[in-house]
Structures are given as C-alpha cells and as structure tokens.
Design goal:
Elements: H1 9-25, H2 45-66, H3 70-106, H4 110-114, H5 118-122, H6 124-132, H7 143-163, H8 165-180, H9 199-217, H10 226-245, H11 269-283, H12 287-293, H13 298-305, H14 307-328, H15 332-357, H16 364-367
Length: about 375
C-alpha cells in the first residue's frame, strides 16, 4: 500500500532542528544556549523529539502492523530498541573514555566528578552492571535509554492505537498518572534515584505522536479549530511571560506537583501542554511546502533522517565540548568553535549517510524537493 512508504519531509526537518538544538543545549553555558526554545517556554527539544518519534514510529510500522503483520513489525521494533541500546553503550563508553583521558592529561580528577563520571571509578564493578542494565546514566546520557523503553512499549501502544486511539490515550494517561504517583525505574548503582526521564510518564507524549501519525497514515488531517489555535497561542505567550519573569512557585493551592511544576523528569503538565501547543501552531504553518521548495532545508532533513547516528555523534561532541570549556575557562572563542565545528561535523556525517543511502546522489534532497508528496521512493522514517 502507498502508506507503507509514506514519508513526510517536514518531520525529518523538525527532527533535524531538534537534534541541532539538543546539541547546543548539551554544551551548557555558551551564548548560543540562550537562543534555543527552552528559554521561551516550558518544554525543550527533548519533548519535541519524543513527540516526533511517536509520529515517525506510526509512519514506519503502523501500516503493516494494522494490516495483519503485527508479529513481524513488533520484532522490528524490538530489534530497533536493541540497536538503540547498543548505540547507547558505545556512546557512553566513548564519552567515559574522553573524560577519563582529559582527567589524566590535565591531572585533574575533578573533571570526572564535574562530568558525572566519578561513579565509574568509585564503584567500577557496580557501574558495569549499571551500564548493562541502563541503570547508570551520567548527565546528558539519559535520553537513549528512554527511547529503548518507548520502543519496547510501542507494540502494545500500537495495538491500542489501532483498536481505538481514544482508549489508547486513556490507558496511556492512566500510566502517566501512575508515574506521577511514584512509578519509575531505579538507577543503579544507588537506591535513592530513578531514571532522569521517567518512561512511564514520557510514554504519554510518544502515544500522542503515535495517534497523530496514525491519522497521517489513514490520510486524515488534523482537526483545525480557530478556538484551539487561539488557546495554543495564548498558552505559549503565557509560558513565555512565566519563563521570562523567572517565577518558581513553592506550591499552588496544595495541588499535585505535576500540575504546576516545571519538571522534565516526570514530564509535568505545563511542559506537556507547551509542546502540544507548539506542535498545534506549527501544524498550521506550510512547513511541508517550505522544505520541498527550499534546498537549504536539505541539511536539516539529512540530520532528522539519520537521527540515531547524528544523536550519538552529537552527544560525544557535546561531552568533548564541555571538557574544552572547563579546561579553557569558558573562553567565548572556544564556545564558537565547539558549536560551529560540532554542528558542521554532524551535518557532514548526515550528508555522508544520505549519500550512501541514495547510492551517491549527494543532492537527493534538493532534487526531490519539488516532487509531490509520496512520489519519492524512500524508506519510512525510523522512530529514532
């Protein structure tokens, strides 16, 4: 069926933009970080990417899943989860080696602590267990474990979406509430902490993406409502004002934390509503037409199309950039070098992967930009 090969180029472009933003955010303290969208509302690029991952998963797996090929598609999702797991292990080891080398070269063991890799040297045996079980997640190395869990949940979520997306959303929201009540996965080593990204909370955003993607697969358009659009814009403006006013309330009339707190760990309601408002407003923009007409959008599409490799490289480069900033004392020249070279290397890798995918056509995105939707013979998007 045609839907099996559906690819929406604007999704690739948005994912590419989210990846670039994640890289900038993962080198904290630079001037560039002040211009990413986390400074203008409650959510950041992580929420955008999880929502798009759910949408992309629907495009990649749902058509055949719903057509009776659920066992094979479920196996493909589990296989993809293992690929992401393997990538996480490689990236974590590479980052640990990079920080360890910097610590040895500068004879400053505090680098390990500053970069949250000190557990690896303090409790090496327990840390090996933590790495293998995803329980050990140094800072900035906690996103891929979330995607592993989301893809392992995806077959069940997709079954619910295929049966009834209102029921799927209800069940997903019930799990979200359980996460707010304390359901989570424990970190290891250590007994007092849980995963930074609680997968039982974040699966709600992934499920919403699945539902939106299922509508695209079925050829249905998003509900367009001026009232909902106005409400989304008002909420975005409210979030902007709240963020710029730097309001940090201790409590709101005794309400549960997730209803008012800006908490990324549990995907609190203000963050969830913010990314959904952003997505709804963005859906009104003719982004699909723009990326098909403008050849300079090609690098963003390359980044989004090869998201796992780009995210892995970006994480290693970001950790390296943090080390350089610590050693260099926050020199603005180093900041510019880290961000420019880092983004350039990621675009270069994305270009090479796209060149390999298309059999040497390095300008494939620009050449296909004017083709009608569905005309390009491409593989469906991956969830990550």
């Amino acid at each position: 069926m045609a839907a099996e090969r559906l690819r929406i180029k604007s999704i690739d472009a948005w994912r590419g933009l989210a990846l670039a933003t994640i890289f900038v955010n993962h080198v904290p303290g630079t001037a560039f970080e002040h211009y990413t969208h986390k400074n203008f509302g409650f959510s950041d690029a992580a929420e955008v990417f999880v929502l798009l991952a759910g949408f992309a998963a629907a495009l990649a797996y749902l058509p055949r899943f719903a057509a009776g090929d659920a066992p094979r598609q479920s196996f493909r999702m589990v296989l993809r989860a293992f690929q992401i797991y393997s990538a996480h292990i490689v990236v974590l080891v590479a980052c640990a080696a990079l920080v360890a080398y910097a610590s040895v070269a500068t004879q400053d063991p505090r680098l390990l602590e500053a970069m949250n890799f000190d557990l690896l040297t303090a409790t090496p045996a327990a840390s090996m267990i933590g790495i293998a079980t995803l329980g050990l997640q140094p800072s900035y190395l906690n996103i891929l474990p979330l995607y592993v869990m989301l893809l392992l949940m995806a077959p069940a979520l997709m079954t619910l979406v295929g049966a009834s997306w209102p029921f799927a959303l209800t069940a997903s929201f019930a799990m979200y509430l359980c996460a707010q009540a304390g359901l989570g996965l424990p970190s290891y080593p250590g007994v007092d902490n849980t995963w930074f990204f609680n997968p039982f909370a974040w699966q709600l955003l992934f499920t919403i993406g699945l539902c939106a993607g299922s509508m695209a697969v079925a050829g249905r358009t998003l509900l367009r409502s001026r009232a909902l659009l106005a409400a989304s814009v008002v909420y975005l403006l409210f979030a902007l004002a709240w963020k710029k006013a730097e309001i940090y309330p201790e409590g709101v009339l005794g309400l549960p934390r997730f209803l008012w707190e800006d908490d990324k760990h549990i995907l609190s309601l203000p963050r969830l509503l913010h990314v959904l408002a952003l997505a709804y407003v963005a859906a009104y923009l003719p982004v699909e037409s723009w990326v098909r007409k403008w050849s300079f959008a090609a690098p963003l599409m390359w980044l989004g199309r090869h998201s796992l490799a780009i995210f892995g490289l970006g994480t290693i480069l970001a950790i390296g950039g943090q080390v350089l900033r610590i050693v260099g004392g926050g020199d603005p020249t180093i900041d510019l070098l880290v961000i420019a070279v880092g983004l350039g290397l990621q675009v270069g890798l994305a270009w090479a992967l796209e060149w390999n995918r298309t059999g040497g056509e390095t300008k494939v995105a620009a050449k296909t930009a004017m083709r009608p939707r569905g005309a390009e013979a491409e593989q469906p998007a991956q969830a990550l």
